[in-house]
Hints:
The chain is α+β, with helices and mostly antiparallel strands and 238 residues long. The protein has 3 domains: 2-65, Arc Repressor Mutant, subunit A (Orthogonal Bundle); 78-126; 144-236, SH3 type barrels (Roll). The chain is built from 8 helices and 7 strands; from the N terminus they run H-H-H-E-E-H-H-H-H-E-E-E-E-E-H. A 5-stranded antiparallel β-sheet has the order 6-5-4-3-7. Strands 1-2 form a two-stranded antiparallel sheet.
Amino acid sequence: MEDNNLQRLSRLTAILTTLQTKRLITATELSRKFGVSVRTIYRDIRALDASGVPIFTEEGKGYSLVEGYRLPPVSFSESEANALITAEHLVLNNQDKSFIENYSSAVAKIKAILRYDTKDKVELLSNRVHIWQSSPEQAKSQHLATLQLALTHFNLVKITYQTVNNEETTQRIIEPFATYCLGKDNWLLLAWCRLREDFRNFRIDKIRQLEVLNEKFQPHPMTLDEYYEKFVQPQINP
């Protein structure tokens, strides 16, 4: 019963975010989006309305929020909103699935706080922007978000890593230091490898298994620029 209540609470929150993102949305669209019956959506809408959320019902067209009800206190200019929408299309071509999902979720929340007039223009632009690729590729990795959390919380990570030439796999305990992406290539992780006792670059799409450990590591007292000057620059200009 508790799980059902948690699921409903999560759905109510998601419905509210959706209502803030869209100008108008029907009960049928909401039922498809959340995998529940239209009758359940009706009950959810009544629950939100009873809790004080000002939902406007436009007969035959759907639901919307009363103008002015949105998440405070951030506001965006139209140009800033357009830049975010354009960036979203670029992100959709990224090679890490977790990055795509998290960015799309963040953009949905940002859309939710836009004024109605800006929201209409943003929806128009979203349908008029496309990033063409000669040979579109599926996202190859899904560990970027997890590794970035480990990086910021200084957690050791245990990985099963496949070499670039696919000849063998090895297990490593690593200390995540930085993540970077070279153009349209895959994401890479720069980390201190306890096996090699040195910094190593790992292609994230070559990480076959990953486990974030509870054990912490001592943060490395340098920036990425300082790392470059100390370890990379001497190899380029010996």
